[in-house]
Amino acid sequence: MNRLQSIFFIILVSLFSLAKVNAQEKKQIEIKYTGFLTFDEENYPGAKVLTRDDSEQVHIIHKNMNLWCDKAIHYSKDKFIEAYGNVKMIQGDTVNMTSKYIEYSGKTQLAFASGDVVLKDPNSTITSDTLHFDREKQEAYYRTGGTVVKDSSGTITSKIGRYYMNIKKYQFVEDVVLVNKEATINSNFFDFYSDTGHAYLFGPSTIVTEESKTYCEKGFYDTESKVGYALKNARIDYDERIIEGDSLYFDNNTNFASATNNIKVTDTINNSIVKGHYAEVYRSEEKDSLFITKRALAITLQENDSIYMHADRLTVTGKPEHRIIKGYYNAKIYKSDISAKADSIHTDQKTGLTKLINVDRFSPGDAFSTKRKPILWNLENQMTGDTIHLISNPETEKLDSLYVFNNAFIISRDTISENGYNQIKGMKLTGWFNDENSLRKVDIDKNAQSIFYVRNDQQELTGIDKAKSGSISMLFDNGDIEEYNRFNRIDAKTYPESKAPKNELILKGFDWRDEERPKSVEDLFKGDPPLNLPIIKGLDDYIPQEDFFDNALLERIKKADDEAEKDKNAKPKASRNLPQEAKDKKKLLDSKSLTEK
Predict the structure, then answer these.
(1) Residue 35 DSSP code
(2) Strands 288-300 and 256-267: what pairing?
(3) Where is this region: Disordered (predicted)?
(4) Conformation bin of residue 165: beta by default, left when phi > 0, alpha when psi is -120 to 50
(5) What are residue 111's DSSP bridge partners?
């Protein structure tokens, strides 16, 4: 090797060594400024005591972390700092933490802060009495109660909290409460993303606003847009309504909610329930409405006998004091003493008026037009017409009267004969009910026609009476005709049963539809298409919070303690402020390490 090569080699080695030294120095804790430097071997063996002066605080740097305080104890061999008084720790532009006391290990990069701890990042602020901060994982953790403030999302308090800085995620456990101007949220397990304001709730949880209270055991809420959804025993309580379902979506900006699968909407003021498998609810000062479909069923609860309404689609509109229930397409009503079927049924809960309507979408000659005409059954009587109105007393829950408009037709099977039917038809029918909700009196007006099976007191058939008149008035007793009177009779004839022509025993328009009559609540759903409910995918199940003091962190702490124990005059410092459960876990880790050795 010539002289020039030797010189070049020496320079190269020197530069490499200098770079190595500089790299090592960067890993060391650097004292950037101190007013006074003293030693106190009795109280702080092997340490430097750094104290501020009148101009500025003690300033310490490690990697990209800056720390200021009034007084610091620096254990250089352990790379350990104890900082007292107006302590401030800043890491780049992401973390700004202040407290009364901080201890920091350069070996583990774990900081422990106590006394009025405040940790700020660009998105939020954490306050707590004690806090652990792992710089390597970029996670902060408190376990004795803390508060997180995010300007737009509100204030969150919990017993245990953890902040994953890299993904801007908070994970709160036990007694979690979020409060902002629009809502208060309570939960046991609560994940919150500070950059989006998204909150995920697990376990029994509530979201309370001025207008509603939402309960769920799994849910999501966007604190920025004020929308969310609730799963698992989900329920929304308004002032007068309770909405329950497998999945609930709600928008607190518009007071809108929708529900999917196994829905139950309870009206606490009107004592009614609506069920189905898809529903939408909208509430405002101007509008209050409910839409429900998929096996939709409205139940008006009564003390003795509830009323059930089913249709392809149900709507409930109006304020609580004046609800109107409408059933569209294949609408049916069932009550023990009365049932009905129509293309559309409308019920006014305030006035007690129920309308059975045939939607005018079929021509009179349509094959299905007769089948779609409104029909009402009461005891043994079947009544049909173009439109039927049924009036009840909302207070007494009793039927009052009945009106059939246009093409009124009432049929009842003769109680004894095999194929005999009492029949009355006319333009309009008016009926009145007795206290037992049985049809007591019926008047048929205009172009009245009738066929009656006349019987004596022994119920022997004395003849079949057929007549035409201007009107007919009848009295019923338990569904049987007790008395009748014809007015302005035009034509009348009585046939003996043996001589009665068969074609004379049926009035034009006769349509006995007893097979369509709902005789139970289950019958309301006969003929409905098969029900296929969607699968609710929703949120994943809660993943329990991993230990902040996991094996990787405890290994770092153990290594720092092991290095300190080599110095007989030093005491391990890295582990001294561990929570008890972390200390116990570290002992197990130490025992396992010794066993392996």
Answers:
(1) S
(2) unpaired
(3) 561-597
(4) alpha
(5) 104, 133
Give the Å distances, CA to CA, from 169 to 31, 327, 464.
33, 47, 86
Q: Beta strands 95-105 and 80-91: pairing type? A: antiparallel
> Whose CA is closest to 162, among 547, 553, 550?
547
Which helix or strand (DSSP H or E) is residue 465 part of? strand 461-477
C-beta of residue 34 within 8 angstroms of C-beta of residue 47: no
Greatest Cα pair distance, the chain, in angstroms, is 147
Tokens 């006391």 correspond to 101
Query: Which amino acid would we find at residue 75?
Result: Y
CA distance 424 to 417: 18
Cβ atoms within 10 A of the Cβ of 517, count?
16
Closest CA to 337 of 435, 220, 451: 435
Answer whether 447's CB lies under 8 Å from 424's CB: no
* Phi, psi angle pair for 395, to nearest 5°: -85, -45
Cβ proximity of 102 and 88 under 8 Å: no
Confidence of residue 12 (pLDDT cuts 50, 70, 90): very low
- Whether pLDDT at 195 is above 90: no
Measure the CA–CA gap between 218 and 159, rounded to whole angstroms: 20
What distance in Å separates the CA atoms of residue 269 and residue 535, rounded to the nearest whole number?
A: 33
Q: How far apart are CA 255 and CA 238, in angstroms?
A: 10
**Dihedral in degrees, nearest 10, Cα atoms 485, 488, 490, 496:** 10
> Which SS3 state, helix, strand or coil, does residue 15 take?
helix
CA distance 280 to 319: 16
Q: What pLDDT, on the 0 to 100 scale, is given for residue 300? A: 86
**Cβ atoms < 10 Å from Cβ of 88:** 17
- Report the candidate in 245, 408, 390 with the shortest Cα–Cα distance to residue 307: 390
| Burial letters 399-408, b for 16+ CB under 10 A, else e | bebbbbeebb
185, 178 contact by CB (below 8 A): yes
With contact defined as beta carbons under 8 Å apart, do 118 and 86 qualify?
no
The answer for residues whose C-beta is within 8 angstroms of residue 211's C-beta and 6 or more apart is 238, 239, 252, 255, 283
Q: Tell me the C-alpha distance between 144 and 129, whole Å.
A: 7
Could you tell me where the DSSP H helices lie in 169-296? none
Considering the chain, what is the average pLDDT of its residues?
A: 85
Residue-wise pLDDT for 136-186, tens only, equals 999 999 999 999 998 777 899 999 999 999 999 999 999 999 998 888 999
